[in-house]
């Protein structure tokens, strides 16, 4: 809580008016005044500034309500761009994204085995090219990175695959681009994407997105706020044990969720099926099981291959164990799964839900929705860009 | 975010000044002005009002720093009382508590099997007597209740033992006493107590208190804010499965944490030992195992009874499974156990920690402290009163 100075009040009012237009528009100046409790002259003044900056535009007249018809205002989605970066496992992906979460420009650079400084140079290369490709003013850069990310201090604490340790990425990028920079764990930003740009903002105020990729992590939004951990590690459910005496995990423990429900684990199991089950559609890969992709697994699943369905069922049940814990900790929530396991559809969701119902307080579990995210494979990219919005527009619940 | 009116500014400034004195005092008016960025005249004005209300007092002079020695101010701990109520399983307990969390007056009424309206009448009786026993102005009433409590709407959704369903307790109490009323789940308020009145506020900003009583629940503080669930059910870890195919729990599922690590479960196991193990100190209860208390179990534990130590070890390991999930969801945290299992000391904590380390990401688990709460058996009572403070003093992070 800080003292209120005139300058702070001005910035506050500008952000308040813009947010109101962004969320409620098309809206008249009078309606803005009513919604914000600001005076009409203040609103007109602030709106004039926003129009001058190109962030707001007049879009016609409101229906007549007796007197003079009011001019309606709306936010100009393309007036500012956000830079979103997804530092995924095998490639780095970046995009220019407008204020409504529409991707205007996209770039993917393969990692080709780079790590350490070379991987960092690739991040610069990616953002250089994106920044150079537009004349639209940029609001800031958001980065979703794997591993333990200290969002508050802007440091990548640990990214095993990239051999990064304590990389002060925020300050490096801020210096290079002279823009605000925000970073967070990739699974965490996936939840932020769904909250910011997804299909049901009100229901997403308390949200868990379980991001099933090569690894597994959860992003957690509580009351519209992303949970980071203290300072890191919220949602690292991929390394919680779900099978006593299970397989050894890269983390050193045994039976972690990732060892059985990640795409890596599903593909490894599919490889075993390819080798051992001549009746499976996957048997065509028997000579080269390494070439099996998730698409191939999904095809075998859709063809009704029983062995593959069992693998998917087991992955779902293990995700259900995790879901039960999440409900036990967070209470009722909305659990959405992201990643290309969505090809397993309702069959996977049923497995998750059935297991969850048996393993946590029924009255909470029953009201917990289990579904898929409304955003597709760009979810981390969008979430990274969504890190920028609330900070730069002055409201963590934009 | 609301518009700033002069009246709001005045209330804001008064709360800001009082909080500064409460937290930083003894402190001079000049130091308050520096800390709050308010002008000296504003501070003097606000302080005069607080002194008139008896909430602040002058307590001497600061050491000389060359010029005139400044008068120091501090909050008067006994200037206002909070009413704290713990609706425990077998008795209702209430207290008058000052602004520093000191219990000034305490009252316990046995439930004697009452439930429904009779139990509700007992709540009124308890608070009537407390309110009538003092002339100190009361800041408000805080209630910690078992079960699912909708804190936002002030409703006890479900308390199985008390046969309560959808009791609008807040509005009932507000009408009767004309005071602000806040309620929350009893385990949740235990965490709030530790955060508000415990030994290390900074470290407790991200805190989990696992309250091991007849049942088990966790209270979770994230960044100084209590997690309620949406709207209920945060921290209901007692009903998450930790033993596949374990005992049936009252909730209908099997192998819940409560079935093996609650005091109820520990005593039940002690009863079996009393009946079956002639070498145990508990065997003296063989004729009447129902009379075994936690004190008796602790005595047998301290006497080195191997069977009892195994029961405690197993309870600890199951709490460790829960702890691993908590770390997986919340990231690094401070995990403190409340309840009379603290008599099992380091032996219990080691069991919890050992299990946790094997079941969640090591780099997070290693930095997660496992200990006991600094507050004793009054923790729910104190936490209930602590619900009132931040609201009435205008800061959720008081």
Q: Can you walk through the features of this model?
A:
Two copies of one chain form a homodimer. Chain A is of the alpha/beta class and 398 residues long. Helix content of chain A is 41%, strand content 21%. Chain A has helices at 6-24, 29-36, 40-52, 116-132, 169-177, 186-197, 258-261, 263-276, 294-302, 306-330, 345-359, 362-365, 379-386, 388-392, and strands at residues 27-28, 56-61, 71-75, 81-87, 91-98, 103-110, 138-145, 148-150, 155-159, 164-167, 181-185, 207-212, 216-222, 225-226, 334-338, 369-372. In chain A, the strands form four sheets. A five-stranded mixed sheet of chain A has the order 6-5-4-7-11, with helices on both faces. A five-stranded mixed sheet of chain A has the order 14-13-12-15-16, with helices on both faces. In chain A, helix 1 (6-24) crosses helix 3 (40-52), helix 2 crosses helix 3 and helix 10 (306-330) packs across helix 11. Chain A is globular and about 75 Å long. The model of chain A has no long low-confidence stretch (mean pLDDT 92). At the A-B interface, helix 1, strand 13, helix 10 and helix 12 of A face helix 1, strand 13, helix 10 and helix 12 of B.
Oligomer category? homodimer
**First CA to last CA of chain A: what distance?**
20 Å
Total number of helical segments of chain A?
14
Report the strand count of chain A.
16
Integer average pLDDT of chain A: 92
Low-confidence stretches of chain A: none
What string, H for helix and E for strand, traces the elements of chain A in order? HEHHEEEEEHEEEEHEHEEEHHHHEHHEHH
């Amino acid at each position: 809580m800080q003292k209120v100075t005139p300058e702070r009040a001005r910035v506050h009012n500008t952000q308040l008016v813009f947010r109101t237009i962004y969320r409620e528009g098309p809206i008249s100046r009078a309606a803005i005044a009513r919604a914000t409790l600001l005076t009409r002259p203040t609103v007109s003044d602030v709106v004039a500034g926003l129009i001058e900056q190109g962030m707001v535009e007049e879009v016609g007249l409101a229906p007549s309500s007796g007197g003079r018809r009011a001019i309606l205002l709306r936010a100009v989605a393309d007036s500012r761009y956000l830079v979103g970066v997804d530092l995924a496992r095998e490639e780095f992906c970046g995009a220019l994204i407008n204020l409504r979460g529409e991707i205007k420009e996209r770039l993917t650079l393969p990692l080709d085995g780079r790590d350490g400084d070379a991987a960092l140079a690739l991040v610069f290369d990616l953002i250089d090219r994106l920044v150079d490709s537009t004349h639209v003013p940029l609001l800031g850069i958001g980065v979703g990175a794997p591993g333990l990310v200290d969002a508050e201090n802007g440091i990548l604490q640990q990214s095993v695959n990239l051999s990064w340790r304590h990389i002060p990425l925020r300050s490096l990028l801020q210096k290079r681009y002279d823009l605000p920079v925000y970073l967070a764990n990739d699974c965490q930003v996936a939840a932020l994407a769904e909250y910011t740009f997804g299909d049901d903002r009100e229901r997403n105020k308390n949200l868990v997105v379980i991001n099933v990729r090569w690894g597994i992590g959860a992003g957690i939004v509580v009351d519209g706020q992303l949970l980071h951990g203290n300072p890191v590690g919220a949602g690292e459910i991929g390394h919680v044990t779900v099978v006593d005496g299970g397989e050894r995990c890269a983390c050193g423990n045994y039976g972690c969720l990732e060892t059985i429900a990640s795409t890596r684990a599903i593909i490894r199991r599919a490889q075993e099926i390819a080798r051992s089950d001549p009746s499976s559609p996957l048997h065509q890969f028997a000579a080269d099981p390494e070439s099996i992709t998730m698409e191939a697994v999904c095809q075998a699943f859709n063809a009704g291959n029983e062995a593959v369905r069992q693998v998917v069922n087991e992955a779902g049940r293990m995700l259900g164990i995790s879901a039960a814990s999440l409900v036990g900790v967070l209470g009722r929530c909305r659990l959405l799964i992201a990643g290309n396991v969505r090809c397993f559809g309702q069959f996977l969701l049923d497995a998750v839900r059935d297991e969850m119902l048996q393993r946590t307080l029924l009255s909470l579990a029953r009201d917990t929705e289990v579904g898929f995210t409304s955003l597709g494979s760009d979810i981390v990219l969008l979430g990274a860009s969504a890190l920028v919005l609330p900070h730069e527009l002055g409201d963590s619940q934009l």
